[in-house]
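Practice problem: predict the structure.
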Amino acid sequence: MRPVIHLIGLPTDQNSSFARGAALAPPAIRAALWSDRGNLSAQSGLEIGTDVMLKDLGDLPLSDVDCAADDALILKAVTETVNADAIPLLLGGDHAVTYPIVAALAARYGPLNILHFDAHPDIYADFEGNPRSHASPFARILEAGHAKRIVQVGIRTLNRHCREQADRYNVEILPILNFEVAMVPILDGPLYISIDLDGIDPSEAPGVAHPEPGGLTIREVLSIIAKQRGQIVGADIVELNPARDVNDITAIVAAKLVREIAAQMHQNYDHP
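Answer:
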């Protein structure tokens, strides 16, 4: 059986800090995805539209000012996708959107295993007085009991508060110093993948609001995704800031990740 993957845009950055702009990301990623610049094949040889069924549902009509209302819309859309036996692949937007997505999936599957790529751990109790900040989604997820295991890759901004939060919630943060792909475990399903594009080194993904040198290569990210075998029940790609991109490089990276994650969702569909 071939799964259907629902591509859903989340044009919001109301919970961003420092610089807004991620609300404009979904159209930029779509433009790169469907561009004649390349084709729709993944590195495995699977092709979007031929082997992998990807249905673009467009963007949700988020207000970008009322977080509770927007959370409700996101939760509803993900729930409808799951109820249709499809898999949601969501385009942020800022990283705050991960919380309602995971909440909806956990309601169906129970606590998830989460593979999180990022420069930042995003586990602040709150950030700048905002508990729904894009720097806090995984704290909210863990408080709610929606995750049984979180593995974070690419983290290189771990301050004292976040270190304490990681210890409190047993978050597995893999050291970026001397990092190797082999360090990343193969996670069981139900598996959720969350990719903040600033987890990738800014030399390869410059179009983010919080660039942090010393990050992952795109090849490392793709290799980590390819080694996963558990059923992937959802994923997000967040924090592209088109105003800060250079020649659409980061949008092209995000589009590549859409193809590769969709293909991996297809491959892992019948795995536990």
